[in-house]
Structure formats: structure tokens, C-alpha cells
Amino acid sequence: QVELSESGGGLVQAGGSLRLSCAFLGRTFSTYVMHWFRQAPGKPRELVAVITSGGSSNYADSVKGRFTISRDNAGNVVYLQMNSLNPEDTATYYCAASSIGAPDYYYWGQGTQVTVPS
């Protein structure tokens, strides 16, 4: 069983930064692909960033150059460093995990709110 717990959200002015953390409870964190999604009110959930077990990462075009995903396999944590935030980044951010054996099944965290007022 896997449990995920996000933290680090909050209210930040445009141009500011936040770092989200996602604690992974379970076995073999290092074998999971870790994702950050976000969902704004009235919009579908979108993939923001993903990092493989080996550390390769990919980003949505809307956050490239501003957001950085990283992972600490020893500490079972994945991070999302968000810089140059703008009001369009306002959303609930969710951490998700998928295993190599079941890539279409996601474990989800409860989400953390990020608000960037206009």
C-alpha cells in the first residue's frame, strides 16, 4: 500500500516561489514514477511534471523553465520547486505515484492549495 502526503502550498504574490513536498509512505519508493498534477476550479486535472525512478524529468509547456521536480530516494520525498509564479498557476496541486508494473494506476495524495492572486 502507498500513501502520499503533500505539503508546502500557500498564498504567494506573483513572481514569488514555493516548494511543494510529497512524502511517500510505502515500500520501494525508488521504483515508482512520481508525478505532480494540478487542478484549477472548473478545469480538468493536468500533468505538471513527472520524474522517473532514474531521475529523468518532463514538464508541461506552461511550467518549463519555472518549475523543477526532484526526488530524494533516501528520504522518500518528491519536490516541486515553483518559481516565477503567476495567477494562472493557482490550483490544487496533487502528488501521484505509479509503478513500473502498473503504469496506468495512480496512487494520489490529498492535494495542497497554491494561490497566486492577480
Write a brief structural summary.
The protein is mostly beta strands.
Count of strand segments:
11
Treating each run of at least 4 consecutive H or I residues as one helix, how many helices? 0
Helix content: under 10%
Class derived from helix and strand content: mainly beta
The succession of helices and strands, N to C, reads EEEEEEEEEEE
The biggest sheet, with number of strands, parallel, antiparallel or mixed sense and barrel status, is: 7 strands, mixed
* Spans where pLDDT lies below 50 across 5 or more residues: none
Beta-strand share of residues: over 45%
Q: How would you state the average pLDDT, rounded?
A: 96
Distance between the termini: 40 Å
* General shape: globular
Rg, nearest Å: 13 Å
Describe the structure.
With 118 residues, the protein is mainly beta. 0% of the residues lie in helices and 54% in strands. It has strands at residues 3-7, 10-11, 18-25, 32-39, 46-51, 57-59, 67-72, 77-82, 91-99, 102-108, 112-115. The strands form 2 sheets. Strands 2, 4, 5, 6, 9, 10 and 11 form a 7-stranded mixed beta sheet that branches. A hairpin with a 6-residue loop joins strand 4 and strand 5 (46-51). It is globular, with a radius of gyration of 13 Å.
Describe the protein's topology.
Blueprint: E1 3-7, E2 10-11, E3 18-25, E4 32-39, E5 46-51, E6 57-59, E7 67-72, E8 77-82, E9 91-99, E10 102-108, E11 112-115
Parallel strand pairs: 2-11
Antiparallel strand pairs: 1-3, 3-8, 4-5, 4-9, 5-6, 7-8, 9-10, 9-11
